[in-house]
Amino acid sequence: MISEEQLAARLKEAREASGMTQEEVAKELGISRPAVSQLEQGKRAVSSMEFERMAYLFGRRMGDFFAEEFRGEDAVVALFRGRPDLVDRKKLLDLVRDCIRLGQELSNLEKRLQISRVEITPQYAPATPNSMPTAVDQGEWFAAEERRRLGLGMGPVHSIAELLESEGVRTAWVEMPKEVSGLTLRPPGEAPLVVINRAHGGPRRRFSLAHEYAHVLLDADRVGMVTVRSDQADLREVRANAFAATFLMPEVGVVEFLASLGRERRSRRAEVFDGEGEISVRGRSTVRNQRIQLPEVVLLAHHFGVSREAALYRLRNLGWITRPQLQELQDQEGAEGREYARLLGLREVHPELERYEFAHRFVGLALEALRREAISRRKFLVLVTMVGHTKEEAQALLELSGLDDKVLDVLIPESLL
After folding, report:
1. Under a CB-based contact definition with an 8 Å cutoff, are residues 222 and 214 in contact?
2. Other beta carbons within 10 Å of 133
3. For 311-338, what is the mean pLDDT?
4. Phi, psi of 181 (to 5 degrees)
């Protein structure tokens, strides 16, 4: 058991590691700066509400401060340190902290219900790429290996979020600045966390999930990575983009699908799609044979659950279309692409629905924990509202489940939940 002086010192260390000033913490807690100073010197006791808020601000579990060993470094702040290019960093930090807290609460529920969870370990340890071609080759090779390891064959991956969760990776969807497509975090003592930008289109989010999965597998030496459009030439990002394109649209799968439409195999060149555009890497050969048309692009994109833009760049990367053809198809892709999809009866892919699978399981676990008296009714209401339900909806869930008479608030201290 640590002393009050040790707790005070750890709170100060965590505050400094997070990059927050005493004035900023005081504002968040609604107290004066001298009060924060006294708290960090052990001259003033910290209340349970203040302690909970400080743990949240520093991206920590409350229990971390009582552990035998304590690390002051904050993975969240470390991720954004040195990134003055990001707009509204404070809002982004708060969003990520909310995601971390949600993951922590899920871990707590699983532990209370004695549910074992896969703990992902880095499957690969690649050397840091030293050139664009090396980055592309690594991304493509590791994507093919990962598909083989998971037994995915050459067909589409139907639920990226579900796949990541099954591999022990937490996923979250939040609205972030438009220049950020996603980020990967490794909170101390927690499973890897992948957060993607909810404000982006559905297929774009799907690509981002695959991109961040690459960071989980291939960049274990980093506490986290944030994916920003301006970093498109960064070799780790190039590798992750190549991984995502190959993981979602394996070459053999693309060839087989086009063959089913009567298209012959094309030659190949290398350009990497990053979710929005391309980065030229190197030429591999010339293009020949039949010309790809927009209906085939629409069908290919729908088959693999990606955007038509991503499908076009993959076709370009694999040598099925020339650069002029790419531009021509891009010009047609918007309204005409949507009309083709409508006439062909293709439903737009909405991978954001995958996110609600997490919310459904989270609520289900909370209900079971309440049923077993592992959490209080008050805690259940807090948890359910964390995944978007209103208090009225949460109360209705209790009534439908026959748990509305559970009154355990005084039996279990909230700080322990």
Report:
1. no
2. 13
3. 90
4. -95, -25
Question: In angstroms, how far is the first alpha carbon of the chain from the final one?
Answer: 19
Q: What is the SS3 string spanning the chain? A: CCCHHHHHHHHHHHHHHCCCCHHHHHHHHCCCHHHHHHHHCCCCCCCHHHHHHHHHHCCCCHHHHHCCCCCCCCHHHHHHCCCCCCCCHHHHHHHHHHHHHHHHHHHHHHHHCCCCCCCCCCCCCCCCCCCHHHHHHHHHHHHHHHHHHHCCCCCCCCCHHHHHHHCCCEEEEECCCCCEEEEEECCCCCCCEEEEECCCCHHHHHHHHHHHHHHHHHCCCCCEEEEEHHHCCCHHHHHHHHHHHHHHCCHHHHHHHHHHCCCCCCCCCEEEECCCCEEEEECCCCCCCCCCCHHHHHHHHHHHCCCHHHHHHHHHHCCCCCHHHHHHHHHHHCHHHHHHHHHCCCCCCCCHHHHHHHHHHHHHHHHHHHHCCCCCHHHHHHHHHHCCCCHHHHHHHHHHCCCCCCCCCCCCCHHHC
Per-residue pLDDT tens digits for 215-237: 999 998 887 888 887 777 889 99
Q: Which residue has the tokens 């927050």?
A: 20
Q: Which domains does the chain have, with CATH numbers?
A: 1-73 (1.10.260.40), 249-343 (no CATH), 356-416 (no CATH)
Give the tens place of pLDDT for each residue, 169-200.
888 887 788 888 998 988 766 788 888 888 88
Burial track 361-383 (b if 16+ CB lie within 10 A, e otherwise): ebbebbbbbbeeebbbbbbbbbb
Q: Which two tokens stand for residue 239?
A: 């590798």
